[in-house]
Amino acid sequence: xxxxxxxxxxxxxxxxxxxxxxxxxxxxxxxxxxxxxxxxxxxxxxxxxxxxxxxxxxxxxxxxxxxxxxxxxxxxxxxxxxxxxxxxxxxxxxxxxxxxxxxxxxxxxxxxxxxxxxxxxxxxxxxxxxxxxxxxxxxxxxxxxxxxxxxx
Length: 152
Description:
Layout: H1 26-29, E1 58-61, H2 69-74, E2 78-86, E3 92-99, H3 110-124, E4 128-130, E5 132-134, E6 137-139, E7 141-149
């Protein structure tokens, strides 16, 4: 029986805004609490954020991350959230752990969980995407990917 890690990718952006985001803010209408202003596209670093005409990048290649021997022996499972920028060619850039698996385990398993974090980052660096689009042109976009480690 082969142990495998299943990679589920969820491309959710924290900056997602509904299509009615251009309506008057609530503070101007007098209804409800104040709403934070949306992130500009592009931001100061030149990166775009999903919404306001920016489409999500589409995952086209996602290799499975390596499930470490220690994690397999301890039957450690969980999810690592990886933040990244998908560039205009569809390649991941600035890949980093946004939410570590080590946050969800006891102190004695933290080192093993950090090994799975490293494995998730290494796998996401190999991902390939169809780039995000804005007005018909590819643009760099910030996004997050969930990497799930499960033992079957």
